């Protein structure tokens, strides 16, 4: 069954920010009952299928896939700033940086050092990299090294019984 023009407008708007309530409002649904509409629309199989189709299409257009995202996280997490310098410790020109290093740089600042007469006597270069800790956290989560939930291996009844015994022994 084909989606109505208003339902297609909802899908269009949903793809902007993935906020069902705001998408419903922008698509022309009544703001007073938007939460009802948003929930119903988002749970319809035909609308979900269209959203999935568009997400897949968008990923293909961007040539984006999970492997690339994980590869980029790894690149940012394990970058080596020493690659920016030559054997004498001098900063290499940006065009000579390897691609793996250049992708990790968030910003570069160059400050000129001048005398009171305004004569440039040198410069200070600052390189800021993307947050390595955040990238390591993302990589760790991907590998299952970090858990966001508590995992209990002992049955709850046994834990309660043990706690009661400890209280009794006091």
UniProtKB/TrEMBL annotation:
Keywords: Viral genome packaging, Viral release from host cell. This is Terminase small subunit. PANTHER family: TERMINASE SMALL SUBUNIT, TERMINASE SMALL SUBUNIT-RELATED. The keyword Zinc does not apply. The lineage of its organism: Bacteria, Pseudomonadati, Pseudomonadota, Gammaproteobacteria, Methylococcales. One of its GO terms (biological process) is chromosome organization. Coiled coil: none annotated. It comes from the Bacteria. The keyword Lyase does not apply.
């Amino acid at each position: 069954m084909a989606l109505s023009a208003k339902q297609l407008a909802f899908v269009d708007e949903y793809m902007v920010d993935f906020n069902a309530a705001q998408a419903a409002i922008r698509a022309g649904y009544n703001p007073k009952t938007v939460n009802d509409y948003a929930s119903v629309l988002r749970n319809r199989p035909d609308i979900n299928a269209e959203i999935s189709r568009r997400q897949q299409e968008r990923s293909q257009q961007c040539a984006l896939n999970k492997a690339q995202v994980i590869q980029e996280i790894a690149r940012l997490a394990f970058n080596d700033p020493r690659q920016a310098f030559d054997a004498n410790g001098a900063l290499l020109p940006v065009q000579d940086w390897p691609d793996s290093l250049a992708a990790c740089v968030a910003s570069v600042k160059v400050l000129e050092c001048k005398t009171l007469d305004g004569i440039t006597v040198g410069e200070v270069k600052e390189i800021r990299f993307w947050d390595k800790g955040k990238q390591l956290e993302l990589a760790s989560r991907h590998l299952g090294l970090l858990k966001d939930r508590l995992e209990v291996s002992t049955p709850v009844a046994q834990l309660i019984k043990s706690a009661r015994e400890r209280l009794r022994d006091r």
